Structures are given as C-alpha cells and as structure tokens.
Amino acid sequence: MRVVVDLSRCEGYAQCAFLAPDAFRMHGEEALMYDPNADDAQRDQVLRAAAACPVQAILVDRLEGRDAPAEASPS
Question: What is the pTM assigned to this prediction?
C-alpha cells in the first residue's frame, strides 16, 4: 500500500502516530515522519489513522501489481 501525507496540511496532532506507530511517528513536536510504503499487515491501523486525522492529510492507496511499472512507456 502507498501512504501519502500532505505535510503542508498536517498540523502535528499525532493521532496517526498513536493509532499506527509502525507507520507514523513524530520527530520533535511538529514534524511527522512516515513510511510511504507501509506493509499491508499494517493496513487496518493505517486506515484508522487516516480516518482519525483531524485535517484529513493522509491518503492511502492500495498498490495493485507491485511489479508493474509506474508509467507505461509509449509504443
């Protein structure tokens, strides 16, 4: 799964770090560190963390074919 946090929107409430500590953690009082490629085993925790974000700064996307190229090359 892919996790993206809009850091310009994040206000450091740390709800995500509380609910999914393996994927999110606070560095200092305001800086959020996160794993953009969180393990699927953490999916439920990450989804709860995203739902709990007061400013909705977290986007979670399931990667469907991890081996698929990011962009298709022109033929």
Answer: 0.77
